[in-house]
Write a structure and sequence with these properties.
The protein is an alpha/beta fold. The chain folds into two domains: 2-118, Response regulator (Rossmann fold, 3-Layer(aba) Sandwich); 127-220, Arc Repressor Mutant, subunit A, CATH 1.10.10.10. It has eight helices and eleven strands. The protein has helices at residues 10-22, 33-41, 59-68, 84-93, 105-118, 152-163, 171-178, 188-202; strands at 2-6, 26-30, 47-51, 75-79, 97-100, 127-129, 132-135, 140-143, 146-148, 210-213, 217-220. Strands 2-1-3-4-5 form a five-stranded parallel sheet, with helices on both faces. It has a four-stranded antiparallel sheet with strand order 6-7-8-9, with helices on one face. Strands 10-11 form a two-stranded antiparallel ribbon. A hairpin with a 4-residue loop joins strand 7 and strand 8. Helix 2 runs parallel beside helix 3 and helix 6 (152-163) crosses helix 8. It is elongated, with a radius of gyration of 20 Å.
Length: 225
């Protein structure tokens, strides 16, 4: 089993490498993000282990670039950051697992073996309604031939609506899926973001795909539906 380890702290990288080798892994180590990205795109690895904070190119950018290039090698990210948003960002970009430093080496090996058994994930399906297209793997939204620039929150609301296309969803359901579980503000924030989305997704194209169902919530469907 071949592992690519991208870690900019030489002593830590060597410690991890030795432990992996002792467990039977074949390990290649690089200390720079750009070099790591080039090695990863070359393929041939069973798992990629990436630090987030790297010189040249961050671990986040490496994952984003790999998934955009349709490289689906499983990725385990390492980070000293333990915020829930950092984990969410990693998974949203296409990482498969995440460990916070300092971590148990026993747990690291167990996670690596699990990823190897699982193999490369299937490419997430592209979501489509009429000529509106959302590609979760590339984190890209297109309306016809036009790429739309959405904020992370706008993207999250649109993705939720598209995953529930032709189904009426409530403001509370959107809040629970897209906002932090600890959010205690007014649920009218959903209405605000739906308004932002309409101005980017529908209005410039003369379309009407985001529908308000009064007293219930919202439904995303074909313009004529």
């Amino acid at each position: 089993m071949r592992i690519l380890l991208v870690e900019d702290e030489p002593r830590l990288a060597e410690l991890i490498r030795r432990g992996m080798v002792a467990e039977g892994f074949v390990v290649e180590v690089v200390h720079d993000g750009l070099e790591g990205f080039e090695a990863a795109t070359g393929g041939g690895y069973d798992v990629l282990v990436l630090d987030i904070m790297l010189p040249g190119m961050s671990g986040y950018d490496i994952v984003r670039g790999l998934r955009k290039a349709q490289v689906w090698t499983p990725v385990l990210m390492l980070s000293a950051k333990d915020g829930e948003y950092d984990l969410a960002d990693a998974f949203d970009l296409g990482a498969d697992d995440y460990l916070i430093k300092p971590f148990s080496f026993v747990v690291l090996i167990a996670r690596l073996r699990a990823l190897v058994r699982r193999g490369a994930p299937e490419r997430p399906p592209v979501l489509r309604v009429d000529d509106l297209e959302l590609d979760p793997a590339r984190h890209r939204v297109m309306r016809g031939q036009v790429e739309l620039e959405l904020t992370p929150r706008e993207y999250g609301v649109l993705e939720f609506l598209m995953r529930h296309a032709d189904t009426v969803v409530s403001k509370q359901e959107i809040l629970e899926s897209v906002w932090d579980l600890n959010y205690e503000g007014d649920d009218n924030i959903v209405e605000v973001y739906v308004g932002y989305l309409r101005k980017k997704v529908d209005v410039p194209f003369g379309a009407h795909t985001i529908h308000t169902v009064r007293g219930v919530g919202y439904r995303l469907g074909s313009a004529g539906a």
